[in-house]
Design brief:
This protein has 189 residues and is an alpha/beta fold. The protein is built from nine helices and eight strands. The chain is globular and about 55 Å long. The chain has one domain: Phosphoenolpyruvate-binding domains (TIM Barrel). Helix 2 runs parallel beside helix 3 and helix 5 runs parallel beside helix 6. Strand 2, helix 3 and strand 3 form a beta-alpha-beta unit. Strands 1-2-3-4-5-6-7-8 form an eight-stranded parallel β-barrel, surrounded by seven helices.
Length: 189
């Protein structure tokens, strides 16, 4: 998968599928299902050393999928290190960080929460947008207004170019626990 292929999916109206994870096995499971993007998130407030380890692990399992890695303290040096470890792009939250990293030739995945930031991060050089809490009205408008793919993490929906979901949220643990406790077979038994 390449960034240009993601753009082609958007252009063709085909949805982009992304999964957030932190290890090779989960990345391999996601890649085996054909996801387009595997993202290393920073929801655990990991140190940069930990993010590097997670990035390298996810790259080993991600197969053909693009790998994104969150960069909470964005510097060109840290971004380049993540690229060396196998990230295809880095994910940041500020327009200034997008501008700085894109100017250094680093592919950037921009996380936004306001519709008015979409065109600005695209102009600053972002190649992909995570529009959190978008809602159907703003999400539809933003996805139509920018030329780069717009995914939805938290609060995203089918109105965007694709979805990004944390792997642990995709597990149906309630059904598993209920089946085991009630003595019913578990899928895969």
């Amino acid at each position: 998968m390449t960034i240009d292929e993601l753009r082609a999916l958007k252009r063709d109206g085909r949805k982009i599928v992304g999964v957030v994870c932190w290890d090779a096995n989960t990345a391999a499971a996601a890649a085996g299902k054909g996801v387009d993007l595997v993202s290393v998130g920073d929801s655990a407030a990991a140190s940069f050393d930990e993010l590097q380890a997670f990035c390298a692990s996810v790259r080993r399992g991600a197969g053909r999928a693009l790998v994104s890695c969150d960069l909470p303290e964005p510097t060109v040096e840290k971004a380049q290190r993540l690229l060396e470890l196998g990230a295809d792009l880095v994910k940041v939250e500020s327009i200034d960080a997008v501008r700085t990293l894109a100017a250094a030739g680093i592919p950037v995945f921009a996380q936004i929460e306001r519709a008015e930031d979409a065109a600005r991060v695209e102009d600053a050089g972002a190649v992909l947008i995570d529009f959190r809490h978008s809602g159907p009205d703003a999400g539809t408008a933003v996805a139509a207004a920018v030329g780069i793919p717009v995914l939805g993490g938290l609060g995203g929906g089918p109105w965007l170019d694709g979805r990004l979901r944390a792997a642990h949220r995709l597990l149906d643990l309630d059904a598993f626990v209920d089946a085991v406790r009630s003595g019913r077979p578990v899928r895969g038994d």
